[in-house]
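Known limitations

Files may contain more than one protein. Parsers should not assume a single record per file. Below, a two-record file is shown to illustrate correct handling: read the sequence, read the token line, then continue until end of file.
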Amino acid sequence: MDDAVRLSADRFRIIYEESFKLWSSLYHRAIKDPSLPTSYLSLPDLFRLHPSFSNSLVLKHTEYASYSSVYATGSSTWGSQQTNCNYGPPSFRQQVQIDVIAQDPILLSIAKTSNNNLSFAPWFIAGHQNYIAVLTLAWTYILSARWVEVMSEPCSLVYSSNSAADYEDSMTSSEVDQDVVSVDIGDVSSDKFRWWAAILAPEHGWQATMISRGRIFLSPWSIRLQSGPRFSLLYKATSSAPPRLSHSAPSFRTASRFLYSFCLKHNISDQSYAALAAVILFPSMESSQPLQLPAPAINGRNNPMITTASRISQHLHYEHQPGHEWMCQGNHLDRLLTLSCNIRGVRSMLLSVFYDPGIECNAVTPWLQGAVASIDSLALDKPLILGRMLMDRSPKLSFLWLGITILGLQKKVLQDARWGLIPIDLHSSVWSWTVQSFMQQPISYPLVVKGSISRADECCLPFLSQSGFHSRVPPLRIHSECKGHGLQYSGFSWDCITDEVPSQPTSSIATYTPLGLSLTQSSEDIEEVNVDYTKLDREHEVISENATRNIFSWLCIDGYASHEKDIWESKWFEILNSDDDDDEEDESGGSSYNGGRHSSRVKSWILESSISAPSLN
């Protein structure tokens, strides 16, 4: 028998079907046109609201038993839209903490053979060639070089003794090695040759470090190449003097010019941006197992496979792609650098593709089951198609999902969705113009409809009013006639040596934007879908149960109203009640149940839980 919280069997099945059909629609859209839209690689437009590190940050330290942390802190300012309100909700601040160092290098490997399921030809202009591994190694240096320039504590960037061999040396070696990949770096000065020799060196050819409190830390993009082909350099020296390996490591700007000229030579600007997307994810996706880069597919010195048609395509392509100058203007690359360090924010952004504001907290399980079933049955072994599906679901996050696809990490990230491990982070949501929580939706007007208030509004108004963990009733009464309330973001400031430093101050903006494809739009793409019900499992609703319990524990911290008694008597809430809980009612109609004993567990729910729209009426 269904209780007041659980969905009926019919409703459970309907939600499952809606989710399956939505993702099926994304699949059919992707297979019709598997190419990568140019807008998905428009880097200057990405994450425009994301703050970038100041060069006067106060870096803080925390020592743990097994490791140390060095991090920057700041705070964001929030408020509410208030068009006709005499009791304007107060502005408030939320703290942010972002790590800025690594203790160990990120382990990398490069595949020696191409994966037949992962041919990037449909995505890139010179898709018959694959330079992504080479470009990824270059971007780790460029981000680290910029990190050295931005950090407020002493940092350095130096070459190591390791270097890639030049082509002649590798060909005259007595050791015959079939795993050598020759990379044509074109006309080079001695400085440029030395840089590429470090970029393509075995293990690591450079090191970016910070010295703090007597300890040495690494840049977050420091790498160690563990396995893969060896690289040799094809080049034409611009001077008669042979290249030497004694030069100092170049700056971020110089290195970016080296990379840009390389991309122009090989017509791989789009591949370069895809490689950057992968590097941005390194701090978030590192593990004890090496991250694997795709096998290089490089056609020698003159790139004979670049046809006349391809060169015409190249010309058209570069008319719409920024040169290396974009990195040095408007803090574009600095924003991506800071985003890359914001590990919590990256994870919440990626998984926000599974959030839909129309799905209530007690319906999360069938919603995720339907999505997983659709992906598994249609696209699990088609990484480019699945990548397009995820990008199309939330185009503003296409850059991050591009990086996940390049690294072959789709299954790893999707595993979190299978378990309902979908965090929210209001900062990353507003910085990326995405929706992660019902808290971002505007308050309904009128607030009261047929004597009832939606549960989402009942949660949002106390949060906007910053009423703490007191009664939810006063904010609802005060703002019952208001129109236009909704969460607004007003800016961010870093904690700096010279007091707070604003990072991209902005006028207040609303935090709600629609997703890339809605439930209603999905039905327009395909007429009929054969739904796979093998993953429908109503007996295991732990994801919905946890989401519902978290929301109600926060909302009802001061007790529940009499009309909510049937909700709190659900089996999903048994864990919150001890055997000797009383059922006495007070004068206001509430019970003696005291949610205050759970306050320490739910106090940070707004920023830390996996949630969906809480519309149990």
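...continuing to the second record:
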Amino acid sequence: MPFDPVLCLNGISVAVVKMRVTVICLFFVSFIFVSAKKPNIVVIIADDLGWNDIGFHGMNHIPTPNIDALAWSGIVLQKYYVHPICTPSRSALMTGKYAHNLGLQHRVLYGMEPRGLPLSEKILPQYLKGLGYKTHLVGKWHLGSYKKEYLPLNRGFDSHIGFWTGRIDMYDHTNMEQGSWGFDFRRGYEVAHDYFGKYVTDIYTQEAEKIIKGHNKSEPLFLVVAHSAVHSGNPPEPIRAPDDVIESFNHISNYQRKKFAGVLSKLDESVGKVISSLHSEDLLNNTVVLFTTDNGGCPAGFNQNAGSNYPLRGTKATFWEGGTRGAAVLWSPLLQKKSRIANQRLHITDWLPTLFGVARGNVSVLKDIDGIDQWDALSKDEKSQRNTITYNIDQIDGTGALSIDDWKLVTGKDYDGEWDGWFGPDGYEGAYNKDLVYDSPAGKAISDLKLMPPKDYIDELRKTAQVTCGNQSVLVCDAKAKPCLFDLSQDPCERQNLASEQPEMLKKLWVEFLKANATAKLPSNLPMDPRGNPKYWGRMYVNFGDFERLS
């Protein structure tokens, strides 16, 4: 008897069909039921993760098997861009708008600063909440905390455990910034002193697992796990991980990089446990997972850290590719073309419309955003809907960058050019262990869903994902004196400034940059408010704007 899905859905009696047809019917009905449900959405944000701090881009000396398992069974986002620093990127992710169109483009928000992500902005969890999602944030916020109305529970999240400011020590959960020092770890609005002394990556993992285990499966889940790793903490020991984990990397001679390896290893372990938990709770088979950095890495002691963007140019907080080309993976059984290196141009602003659309939202209601719904382009391997990216426009520093297709313009100079170079390590020494990937918790969970590719195919994918610079000589770029121009298709490492050789292309990009600059908002930065100093609040960062000063 031929398989007829209409008969299946009309409830044909199993007594009059063969057993094999019954099984097919049940499978078909099950598939229809699962695919009709809104997918769960899990966003995992790594803080300051560099291009070359990940195995799928070619690094060998720090294994990241769980993240790599997502990469090889999902899609590696090879031409994905972020803003060069934290608050701008996170605001873009949440709003679908460039940071310079929000007034958040200059530096970051601080715990004593009386401002935040504008309350006029409706953000991603609020949109998803309107579609019936349960929304949870674990980890870093960094989008304003001086009044309660700026905090996660008032911006669409049902729950939050984590911190409000830009960084914390991995064990004591204090932050040192702008001449202040205080404790910053919360469960909702309440101070979470009970977690003091516990390694923060483990806290995030346990809290994420608890949310997943307790989730009502009749409702779709939106979970953001915004890690502290691999951001540096407080001096004098900004890079911290458990001693036994650090000692497992004795093959790394540079001690700071060795400690960094411990931090990164714990991050990868967390990713594996979250994926495994989703699978154990029968949620993974209908989940979209985004793993992304917020900006480029911090190599060679920049920001007291030891990351790597090799072979890309620059660091976090610069407009070079090393500061803005993000390490990221999109994973889901719902992707039609998986296990590939995606060359679609993509910006962090695109996630709001893309994820809203995946959640069955009507993308046409999203007005005045810079993001583009890229789900079909990514899922079906179609042409990207984006050809222009504005990296940022900072009127205070006089810096900015913009690209059209593979041509990129850079103007202005950060840190007086100190971090305009190329920094290692390359991390290529040693061999890549594919067995670790398949034997990792994430690898096993994905294998159970029959979504891991053949091991031999990984070599081909990894080779494609590795950026090489070639042997181009360096043509000097002094972007403070005049704009520089690069052809990223031939020169991904920005060695050859072609501004003199390509004046018409330079003019074309400069005109577009001026258009973007004409509509950009001025930075909203405000002076530090001494009322917010933790020394007045029992050494805690608080929502100081909600309290009146009595004297």
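Parsers that stop after the first record will miss the second one. For reference, the second record is described as follows. The chain is about 30% helix and 15% strand.
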